[in-house]
Amino acid sequence: MKARIVYASMTGNDADMADILEEDLQDLGFDVETSEAEFTDASDYLSSDLCIFITYTYGEGTMTDDIADFYDQLKDLDLSGKYFAVMGSGDKMYADHFCENVFDFEKMFKQVGAKEVTKPVTIENAPNDNDIDAIDNAAKEMADQLNG
Ligand SMILES: Cc1cc2nc3c(=O)[nH]c(=O)nc-3n(C[C@H](O)[C@H](O)[C@H](O)COP(=O)(O)O)c2cc1C
Fold it and tell me: What positions does the domain Flavodoxin-like occupy (predicted)?
């Protein structure tokens, strides 16, 4: 099974999440490719079974340009028959906007026909031990759904 992880990270927290998930999925037997949103075209998802997006949220949910460009590319795809998962890091100080971009992408993946394999993993700032467990568990759910 092929998994594609695309992530956006300014200060490294979402890049760390991507690293953890990449290692988990490789251990579970996936062939994984990981890249940053600003250097990736969303159409790269078309060659994967499992499409993953991991993102920060800045500016009370307003998308930064690199995420907005990727979002616009995603909007034009047909991902029916594919599976997806989203995750990301934010800060609860932003209350109603906590991890808003993660949920924006969740909606868009559904809109373009992909099937969600696990609930979004949303964490605060850098991943701690509990967050790492949550990512590990999400990876196991992904493997169960795709292999089961
Ligand atoms: C100026 C600024 C605005 C932010 N706005 C939000 C926000 O609207 N919602 C949120 O959940 N987190 C917000 N955050 C927190 C970041 O999303 C959080 O620190 C995240 O871990 C950064 O991820 P990164 O290290 O991958 O860039 C903001 C942080 C900064 C510095």
Answer: 3-143
State residue 127's pLDDT score: 98
Question: Rounded to the nearest whole angstrom, what is the distance from the C-alpha of residue 56 to the centroid of ligand 1?
Answer: 6
In 3D space, the residue among 32, 1, 10 whose CA is nearest the CA of residue 145 turns out to be: 1
CATH topology of domain 2-147: Rossmann fold (3.40.50)
Residue 124 near ligand 1, beta carbon < 6 Å: no
Tell me the per-residue pLDDT of 89-148, one tens digit each, with 9 for 90 and over: 999 999 999 999 999 999 999 999 999 999 999 999 999 999 999 999 999 999 999 987
- With a 6 Å cutoff on the Cβ, whether 9 touches ligand 1 is yes
CA atoms of 120 and 77, how far apart (whole Å): 21
For the chain, what are the domain ranges?
A: 2-147
> Which residues pair with residue 84 across a beta bridge?
51, 116
